[in-house]
Amino acid sequence: MSVLIKIGIGLITSKVIALFVGPAGMALVGNMRNFITSIESIATLGLNGGIIKTVAENKDDSGKLNKILSTVFIAFLSVAIILSILLFLFSEYFNHKIFGENHQYAFVFKALAVAIPFYTLSMFLLSVINGLGRFKNVIYINIIGNVIGLLVSLLLITRFQTLGALLAIVITPSLLFLVTWFFINKEISILRIIRTNKFDFLVIKDLSSYSLMAFFSGIFGSFIYLSIRNNLINTVGLQEAGYWESITRISTYYLMFVTTLIGVYYLPKLTTCKTTEETSTLFWDYFKRILPLFILGVTVIYFLRFFILETLFTKEFIPVENLFFWQLLGDIFKVASFILGYQFIAKKMTTAFILSEVFSLSLMFCSSFYLVSLFGVKGVVMAHFFTYSIYFVILTFYFRKTIFNYNFPRL
Question: Which of 36, 227, 247, 358 has the greatest number of C-beta atoms within 10 Å?
């Protein structure tokens, strides 16, 4: 239900952005999203997953738990304040880098400077609630946060168009702080626990082993996609960059079902697999059950692409239909790669994960620049297909001993 609500809210927001902002504004919104993703990764130090695991392991040891919470809270708040100062002082610089010389949205970065501490603390509190095992509360927080975010987004976009859409991206995540604060106080008195004399750098060091992958992926990945979109804007125009942002949004919505399924069902099972045979069986369970359903789903989406575009956006976005084929084909290979990529996370194969990310993102970066120069905006989705097909082949080769260590039924 939480995922369905999130997707539904995303679809409504996309429709409103399409009506009031158009393809050009959609491209600017995409740039801001990528920038915020990297800022959020820095602000939280990529530690969210580590906090959940560590709190879960030490929730019955109040002394150790208090030290962990104090250390992470102080670290998060310190980094957030530094980021806020930099964003506020250099708002004009960031505006030039993210939006170019023709757009004046420095105010958005000043708003982000104010919002970042609240967002950071909300992520900290949400991770603590999750680590304490209050999973229903986590779901309630996400649902309430998404609904509040929708209402604020509708108000801002309808009144201020592109500026409102950018402000909505900045403000809505920080509003989650009010919700998380309400729920955390039901569990523990967080203000009584936090003490500066309990700060221990070793806690951060221990947590970092869990979070380096998320930290790297969040920053490097966002930078690459931001660079690709800026190249698209400079090469073929803001309107076409908005078309790519639109197909990316559609892709994000249907991929959310798969990523949620993997996170909830397959990742915990991968973590507990003790033998190659068990892992191989789980891989093939995914390939036989999930992948065919996904292929069927994107095939239906392809034939309904005109209806989807007119429903989710406006007739102004009809040219996006030319991007569906390569995007959907690339997403098939992306989904096929998911289960293999999550093996890096399940077994904490940090070095292998980072190398695979560097390779795939670099390949996406280089191929998109080359193909855009030849085919225009279609070149980006062609690069998407090229990148994930190669990525799948490489992961298949890397995990070949695990994948093919499977007892296929005899005919």
Answer: 247
Q: Provide the b/e sequence for 356-378 (b: ≥16 CB within 10 Å).
A: bbeebbebbbebbbebbeeebbb
**Burial (CB count within 10 angstroms: exposed 0-12, middle 13-18, buried 19+), residue 50:** buried
Report if residue 169 sits inside a domain: yes
Burial degree of 63 (CB within 10 A; 0-12, 13-18, 19+) = exposed
Using the structure block, give the residue that is written with the tokens 């099972």: 269
Return phi, psi of residue 46, to 5°. Answer: 65, 20
What average pLDDT does the segment 288-306 reach?
Answer: 95
Asked whether the beta carbons of 180 and 141 are under 8 A apart, the reply is: yes
For residues 171-198, average pLDDT: 82
DSSP string computed for 93-155: HHHHHHH-TT---HHHHHHHHHHHHHHHHHHHHHHHHHHTT-HHHHHHHHHHHHHHHHHHHHH
Shared domain check, 329 and 187: no
152 lies in a domain?
yes
Q: Residues 102-110: contacts with CB within 8 Å, 24+ apart? A: 103/28, 105/28, 105/163, 105/166, 107/163, 108/32, 108/163, 108/166, 108/167, 108/170
Residues 315 and 303: their CA atoms lie apart, in Å, by 17
Length of the chain: 411
From residue 249, give the alpha-carbon distance in Å to each of 16, 22, 332: 13, 14, 16
Q: 7 versus 49: which is more confidently predicted?
A: 7
Question: CA-to-CA distance for 220 and 212, rounded, in angstroms?
Answer: 12
Assigned token pair, 321? 């239909």
> From the CA atom positions of the chain, what is the Rg in Å?
22
Does 289 share its domain with 177? no
Residue span of the structural domain in which 305 resides: 236-403
Residues 262 and 328 in one domain: yes
| Both tokens assigned to 38 | 């990297």
Q: Would residue 228 count as lying in a domain?
A: no
Global confidence as pTM:
0.87
Q: Express each pLDDT in 261-278 by its tens digit.
A: 887 788 778 877 888 888
Round to whole Å and give the CA distance between 235 and 229.
10
DSSP state of 335: H
Residue 75 neighbours by CB under 8 Å, 6+ apart: 45, 47, 199, 204
Q: Are 170 and 114 in contact (CB under 8 A)?
A: no
